[in-house]
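Sat 14:20. Reprocessing the chain from the morning session after the first attempt stalled halfway. Input below, unchanged.
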Amino acid sequence: MSNQPDAPNVQLRRAVASSFIGSVIEYYDFLLYATASAVVFNKVFFSSLDPLVAVIASFGTFATGYLARPLGGVLFGHFGDLLGRKRMLVLTMTLMGVASFLIGLLPTYAQVGWLAPVGLVVLRVVQGIAVGGEWGGAVLMSAEHATRRRGLWAGFTNAGAPCGMVLSTLALTATAALVGERAFLDWGWRIPFLISVVLLGVGLFVRHRVEETPAFRAVRDAGVKRRAPVVEVLRDHPRVLLLGIGVGLAAFVSQSTLTTFVLAHGVAAGHARQTVLNALTLSSVCAVVGILGWAAASDRFGRRPVVVAGAVAMGAYAFVLFPLVDSGDTVLLTVALVLGQGVIHPMMYGPLAALYSELFSTENRYTGASLGYQVAGLGAGVAPLLFASIQRATGGQGLTLISSTIAAFCLLTVVCVLALKETGARDLRAVAVS
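Finished this time. Tokens:
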């Protein structure tokens, strides 16, 4: 009996660990593709195209994963609100691990022609559906177990994304160093994808030990009848959903700019690929600390002030980023990525996990939070493709236009955040936004 009061804390720790580790694994797989699309896939799956067109095509397949994420959010959100968060998290992790493993087995364009990029797109869509369903459930497992400091505990899910980026970048870097450039393009790039099956086993073991959230159990035990959570969200909370999408857009556009577009642009500007990858790895490590720090700050100061400050800072920084990258100096490149990804971007991104979970009631929270977050996530998928197209249309110029586009998204985020009420003090078992 003496251990009974500690049970909620034990489950909170398990839930946070499960959400963090699961997020790391999911984003390792998802962002491994992002890195590979910038440095490998244009040569392996689109080798018959003009180099710049091949980059655009590669980013296009990258974008399909983000286009599929809202579908995953609706699909798994629906069943997560009806059947429980835990079951859906097991399914999403399995789906992602299998898809990533199969990407590692795909034949190249030289081997099977057009079937290769088609297979790549199909598996990328599966990845998108999986990660679209993963995020909402992982966030809610932490947020709905937490009784205080919800921003911090929910923020661990978002901190998993840069950790996944670190692991995926290190996996590609280490493989390239071990096998050499030629072998890496021939077959070495497959190894990090094949490792996914090992990570899948680890993630499923950790996730198995977490109980369903108290908030969901309360709704289930109360016998609340729920048929179509997505219909409830669209019918009853359209304003909140639209504002939530706007809140997240700048964070996602900035994220993919700093982790995907800058990687390709930095190489094109004369930096060695490994130099850019090293800077990206360091900035991703800093992002983990930044996300948790700003998520914790949102518990003290509120979600709105932190996100608004981050959006304003990123809007201004967008005009500094590319001159630093184009300087040709490794130190300035590293500073550009560390400051952007490790300090400024986390101000917008860190509080989002708690903020989205606080916008909806328990009956439709998985669906509402997932849909808002994943539709906003389309910005991350479209931005590299849009920016690469701008560069192609302007003959490699147009960086000021790209910076202005980022700043415009930041302005939209500020407007949407200010239109929402502060959510940090809400009880997740009683939230019902009208």
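Residues 1-6 have pLDDT under 50 and may be disordered.
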